[in-house]
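Quick review question:
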C-alpha cells in the first residue's frame, strides 16, 4: 500500500461517513435485506428498486462504524444504474482485493479502490463487506417480503 492510496482511503472514509450517499428509505423497494456485523456492532439495511436486471435505485439505513458507512455509501453509488451481474462482479473483485486474493492495482474497482486500505486492518474487512453482503442478499430475495437478514459471521476469516 503506498502512502497516496492510504491518504485517499482515510479521506474517502471520513468524507462518506460525514455525508453518506443514498442514505434513507426508498418509497417502494422491490428488494431489501439487513446486514449485521456482530464483531463490530454494525447494523445496516439495504433497499433496492430492481427493474428487470437493473438496479434502478438503492438506499440504505442503519448504524455502523465509519468504514461500514463509507463502504456501503460507496457501494450504493457504484451499483446504482448498473445491472445485477455488474454489481455481482464488482462485489467479487472488491472482496478479493480486501482479502488479499487480488491486487488493488489490477482490479477493476473504479472509485472503490480507495477502500483497499482496509486490507491493512483485517478485523475491519467485515465492516467494509457488510453493505455488499446485504446487497447480494437483497438481490437474491424474490419480492420485498420481510427482507433477508445476513450476518458477517458467515464470512470466513481472512
Ligand atoms: Zn464496523
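Suggested answer, residue by residue:
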Amino acid at each position: 500500500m503506498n502512502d497516496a492510496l492510504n491518504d485517499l482511503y482515510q479521506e474517502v472514509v471520513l468524507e462518506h461517513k460525514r455525508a453518506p450517499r443514498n442514505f434513507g428509505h426508498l418509497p417502494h423497494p422491490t428488494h431489501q435485506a439487513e446486514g449485521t456485523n456482530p464483531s463490530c456492532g454494525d447494523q445496516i439495511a439495504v433497499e433496492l428498486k430492481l427493474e428487470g436486471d437493473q438496479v434502478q435505485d438503492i438506499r440504505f439505513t442503519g448504524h455502523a462504524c465509519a468504514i461500514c458507512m463509507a463502504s456501503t455509501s460507496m457501494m450504493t453509488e457504484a451499483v446504482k444504474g448498473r445491472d445485477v451481474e455488474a454489481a455481482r462482479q464488482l462485489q467479487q473483485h472488491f472482496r478479493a482485493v480486501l482479502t488479499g486474493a487480488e491486487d488493488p492495482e489490477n482490479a477493476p474497482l473504479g472509485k472503490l479502490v480507495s477502500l483497499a486500505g482496509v486490507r491493512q486492518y483485517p478485523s475491519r474487512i467485515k465492516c467494509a463487506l457488510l453493505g455488499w453482503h446485504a446487497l447480494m442478499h437483497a438481490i437474491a430475495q424474490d419480492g420485498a417480503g420481510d427482507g433477508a437478514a445476513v450476518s458477517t459471521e458467515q464470512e470466513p476469516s481472512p
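Why it works: The mean pLDDT is 90. Helices lie at 3-18, 66-79, 84-98, 125-140.
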